[in-house]
Design a protein that fits this description.
Two copies of one chain form a homodimer. Chain A contains 15 helices and 35 strands. By secondary structure, the first copy, chain A, is an alpha+beta fold. Chain A has four domains: 157 residues, Galactose-binding domain-like (Jelly Rolls), CATH 2.60.120; 103 residues, Jelly Rolls (Sandwich); 332 residues, Glycosyltransferase (Alpha/alpha barrel), CATH 1.50.10.10; 89 residues, Sandwich (Maltose phosphorylase, domain 3). Chain A has a six-stranded antiparallel β-sheet with strand order 7-6-9-4-11-12, with no helix packed on it. In chain A, strands 14, 15, 16, 17, 18 and 19 form a six-stranded antiparallel β-sheet that branches. Chain A is globular and about 80 Å long. Chain A starts with a helix and ends with a strand. At the A-B interface, helix 2, strand 3 and strand 6 of A face strand 3 and strand 6 of B. Chains A, B: One of its GO terms (biological process) is carbohydrate metabolic process. Chains A, B: InterPro entries: 6-hairpin_glycosidase_sf (IPR008928), 6hp_glycosidase-like_sf (IPR012341), Bac_rhamnosid6H (IPR035396), Rhamnosid-like_N_bacteroidetes (IPR048932).
């Protein structure tokens, strides 16, 4: 028995040492792949056949990078090298000749370093030995300052800044970062109408990918018109996206379009002797699984949730993008909402950081992100959220300097009152809304500015930059004080919209007021005032974009108005479903009819019918119905406050960095399973609740709490 | 007669309108081609077969550029488009479909714009109509901020910064900037020693280019060892550059090496069944003609001048580089001297600005240029010189912001005394000299800093930035005051070398003292003191690099010590010639013997035997013997002060932006021809000089002056 055990032990050691080979992965200068990929994606936009690149500065990756790591090896090992770019490789500062594909690193303590130049792609390496493997523990710099004097003595490099390498999931040496492609899958149309010289296809729902023409032959033109609506696909002169081909081939061949398109309907027209067997598509997607879920007794709400998750998936690609048809650019304000939805559906942090880094770009800051003042501020606020949900300190440590320089840009653009006001070249966006004033000092911008400064203070503390933490906290407090002294109107019971040329306007809009609620900037009296005089006041201009509906409904949820929100959700998102939507739109105005719905930007089909900001029910249902939200970074502590919002039962999951929180709630029973750290279930009950798995504590006013431990399930009987 | 005249007039109009077609040229964002080309060139360095890239940050071109120009056409015209990158083209903001190669621009006032994305090369365009042609009057930006609101209304772009396009001489649409190559010309060896398995070639003098193996066939290895000396070419294990090939071919083929090398001697070794007919080279060069010249009665000086001009030509390539064998990097301190020599030989401003822009790179500044403190300061001083010689205000207007940000970097690195002191990551270079202290506050660096601040004040005035002109002038004055209060020693009659930890050292070196002379920072008493106690004092450590010999001899010339300099030139540069030099060296120490001369950086052949800084006689002979120098930008006014320096006669030309100044001077006669603006010939004579072509004015102490007008020649009889 003893012998058998030791053999088993040996066997296990062998296996374990086999597995001890660390996973090598492609690495690069952090943020650089993201910038490079962002450039590639954003420069794929076309309007019909015209190239339409972004109107802001695009940065480049650093083209010359030094990678190194110190190793202590018990025995010499062979190491394979894969490199994107022109490179050298050194052990302890001594270079190997040429461009070796394999080196031997001797036993003992050794520094392995590679230096790589690459202009068209991101300098990247994949190093695979047994212990000598490339991963995000390697250090990288874009200026090693390693000079030698006339005697051959090397410099001390004390002025060199090293960061940890960036990586993602490129674990195959044959698939370097530059070869990254999204996944594809063949799909067929659900309905095909073939006529002489044309095929009209309906793929059954909004989709995205490459159209494929099968068995194509003959001589002539093939014009493909794409539509999110049948009207658009038929409007050959004004549809937003097209493909025009000419062929002259006798042999039948399949032909796949080069650029992806967004569509439900495809109108293929051809002339001459062109014939084809059939038309299908390659659906293109980022393979990322749902972790969150939501179901309830109301089938319309369930359908809204499903269409929202599909909408989010379609817009979760190389990056979180705004809409799949037109822009395919990365917009910070749009992405800020995708991040929040992501925390309740995918919990895919790489998609968040990829997007944040592509948006931030490089030094120097020469304009607001996307040129939009509010979009810069959302970038900061998104970091606040990201840290709260994921607890990822490493991201903040690596990119704190980029946060600082972006904040310096904002601080440099304050006016004499210390407030932000659009200067030449600044786009003050707020929302797409007719007649919305962007002039002067807009209260909404100051509110986002205050929260951004609070984010900077938080991050300064994380990197132990105490003097700046104090500075940012003070600046945040100043802006908050000015926000209320400047804009709060007792007679309007609200923050007014703006101050222009020193005169505070009378105009009340929803924007600053609703954000002030969920930023928790209002005392209870002001909250109730805002609810009554702004949020529930039909005379305050209505919001027509799902973008701002997101925040409006969040504010109402934060005030406990879930029942009202349920109705609004059914009206607004349900309204789109009633019009046949299979994904949610950039803008929805119920007073419009027919193809009017598709117009925007002065173009008949300018509107995107699949816009990420339309997917907010994912967030609202997860955070304010299932009621799960972190109260400390990475869900070390969190709340579960289920709210039925007029529904009979709700059931779902919310992902955390360590497992999913499950919640079921009806008017009589709550069932929860904990994840991550320590949860607190909080609920109201008219009777004393009963729970066998834990102790329910009365708090006040018929409110009760139950501590929820990781991995444990609890069933509570109560009475709503 | 009248009729004939009007026909002639018509004919001339026709010809002139035919010629009125403007020259189109490739254009780009200013400075970007220079950065891109600099990256390419500097990343071609290898040490034997190992890739050896720079150790400082390399920047990238902007990858997304908007180009535009407004035209007013009397009739519509066809315009051909050539573009490097993915692009769109618009007339008055309306885009053409796809990627057109020809467009028609209608008659009337129209804005033509192109937007181009390119990551691996510099976005560039070549537009060729009759009037619609691309040239450096087009405006460019890397962020057009041209957004539209939800109604389709375009933004006002008031925050967009437009610069004038960059260009060089790419006038052929088929040869875009990315295809730029230097010229080549076939050359043969002057001596070939063919043995079994080897060929040893001597090309007669230092040269540069691609080795070509003719009629190569067989199977085996070919190892090529390059040498600036025969010793190096024979030292197969330690020569600095090599090429290793393997072939297996039965057909005879010519094979040209991929990378250029510097050499005089080439040692080709081969094994197996390898055979070849012969070995030759393709000499690679920038085609730029000599405009300056110098001849005198001393044949050794003439030979020095010729070898100096050859040395400068070899190092004047894509950029002014330091040396052709080893680095092939761009070094600001080395280039600063090449610029000065250039003004007396080539007067090729594009080579100056190309080099300055590649050195400066992009924002943000993260280290000194080449990491070297003095090299940053030389960059500023070079602008001072460039403006003085060329009067090119446009360059300063375009790049003043980059000058400001680099100066901000310096100002941010001042210590508590307001002086520059090496911080972590700063290389304080000064010179290659044994035991030279770089510690603490070095006087030499403060001196360069003061001159740099003066340059900034000059440039601030040129761009009408009056507040900063005042600021920079004040800062310059402060540093100058501190320079003398801190370092001037009455007992040493000199500026001492440094202050370390608050204690001024006793050490006197030549550096700050010699620069103080030709910067004109010393009063006459101090000048004479420095001459006696430093420059002509053998106890002050000698300078052994041609780099600092340049400035040492310039200081002596500025003090009128040309006769001494003539002797030094013959000793030092003549010393190299006596050792067989065919180009001038990185360092020359007459106390060394044999192959000792070739060692540096701890390597037996580490020294470069063709270093640009060795070519300074071009500058000294032009500026201080022919005595021609501008006293106002672009030679609007200038001096001609010929000095024989012990020679019997001198004869030569000095180029200006508008023609060459000719000077002949013997002990009895001076002959000059003016160029550019207004010259003043100044000379001493023991008798009253006679000139038929102009009026000689006595000035003082036997000094006379004559006004020299553009294009006019003057002969003066005088007595030295």
């Amino acid at each position: 028995m003893k012998k058998a055990l030791s053999i088993l032990f040996l066997l296990l050691s062998f296996i374990s040492s086999g597995f001890a080979q660390n996973q090598a992965t492609w690495i690069w200068y952090p943020g650089d792949f993201e910038i490079w990929l962002g450039n590639n994606m954003q420069n794929r936009r076309t309007e019909r056949t015209t190239f339409l690149p972004p109107f802001w500065k695009l940065d480049s990756h650093y083209n010359l990078i030094d990678f190194h790591k110190d190793f202590d090896l018990t025995q010499a090992e062979d190491v394979a090298l894969f490199v994107e770019g022109k490179y050298n490789v050194k052990v302890d500062g001594k270079a190997f000749p040429g461009y070796p594909k394999r080196i031997t690193v001797p036993a003992g303590k050794h520094k392995v370093s590679l230096k790589v130049f690459c202009q068209d792609r991101v300098p990247a390496i994949y190093v695979r030995g047994k212990n000598v493997v490339s991963d995000d523990t390697w250090l990288v710099t874009f200026e090693d300052k390693e000079w030698i004097d006339e005697t051959g003595k090397a410099s001390d490099q004390s002025g060199t800044t090293w960061l940890k390498a960036g990586s993602w999931n490129f674990n195959d040496p044959q698939l370097p970062p530059s070869k990254f492609r999204l996944n594809t899958k063949a799909l067929s149309a659900v309905k095909t109408d073939k006529q002489k010289g044309s095929v009209f296809l309906d793929f059954g729902k909004e989709t995205f990918g490459f159209i494929k023409l099968h068995g194509l032959s003959g001589k002539g033109n093939i014009n493909i018109y794409y539509g999110e609506s049948p009207e658009e696909a038929r409007a050959t002169a004004t549809c937003e996206t097209t493909d025009f081909l000419q062929i002259d081939q006798t042999q039948k061949r399949d032909s796949t379009m080069k650029l992806t398109k967004a569509f439900r309907y495809v109108n293929v027209q051809f002339d001459g002797s062109v014939v084809m067997d059939s038309v299908s598509m390659l659906y293109e997607f980022l393979p990322v699984a749902d972790r969150g879920s939501f179901r309830c007794n109301d089938e319309q709400i369930n359908r809204i949730y499903d269409v929202a998750t599909y909408t989010l998936h379609l817009n979760t690609r190389e990056f979180f993008i705004d809409g799949i048809k037109r822009d395919r650019w990365i917009w910070s304000g749009d992405a800020a909402q995708s991040y929040l939805m992501n925390y309740y559906l995918l919990f895919d942090s790489p998609s968040v950081t990829r997007t944040m880094l592509a948006l931030r770009g490089k030094e120097p800051v020469t304009s607001h992100i996307n040129t939009i003042m509010d979009y810069t501020l959302y970038w900061f606020i998104s970091i606040y959220d990201y840290y709260q949900y994921t607890g990822d300190k490493a991201f903040i440590q690596q990119f704190y300097p980029r946060m600082q320089s972006l904040m310096d840009y904002c601080l440099d653009r304050r006016n004499k009152n210390g407030l932000l006001e659009g200067l030449a070249g600044d786009w003050v966006f707020i929302d797409w809304a007719d007649g919305l004033s962007k002039k002067g000092e807009v209260s909404f911008e100051q509110l986002l500015f205050a929260r951004s400064l609070e984010t900077m203070a938080l991050c300064a503390n994380i990197v132990n930059d105490t003097p700046n933490a104090t500075k940012y906290n003070q600046l945040a407090a100043d802006v908050k004080t000015k926000l209320f002294s400047t804009y709060w109107s007792d007679s309007k019971h609200a923050l007014v919209h703006s101050r222009v040329d020193g005169v505070t306007t009378d105009n009340v809009t929803r924007y600053a007021n609703m954000f002030a609620i969920f930023f928790n900037y209002l005392d209870d009296a002001k909250k109730q005032a805002v609810k009554q005089y702004v949020l529930l006041n039909p005379n305050v201009p209505k919001i027509t974009t799902p973008y701002m509906r997101f925040y409006e409904l969040e504010a109402l949820c934060a005030l406990g108005e879930q029942s009202y929100v349920t109705k609004e959700m059914k009206d607004y998102w349900g309204g789109m479903l009633n019009l046949g939507a299979t994904s949610f739109w950039e803008e929805y105005n119920p007073t419009k009819t027919g193809a009017e719905h598709y117009a925007m930007y002065g173009r008949p089909f300018g509107k995107s019918l699949c816009h990420a900001w339309g997917a907010s029910p994912i967030y609202l249902l997860g955070k304010y119905y299932l009621g799960v939200k972190p109260t400390a970074p990475a869900y070390a502590t969190y709340l579960i406050e289920p709210q039925l919002g007029g529904l009979q039962w709700i059931d779902g999951k919310v992902p955390t960095p360590d497992g999913d929180v499950s919640v079921y709630c009806s008017t009589k029973e709550i069932k929860v399973t904990g994840a991550a750290g320590t949860g607190t279930l909080r609920f109201k009950s008219k009777t004393k609740p009963v729970c066998k798995q834990g102790e329910v504590r009365p708090v006040s006013n018929g409110t009760y709490e139950l501590t929820v431990e990781k991995g444990k399930s609890y069933v509570v009987s109560y009475k709503l």
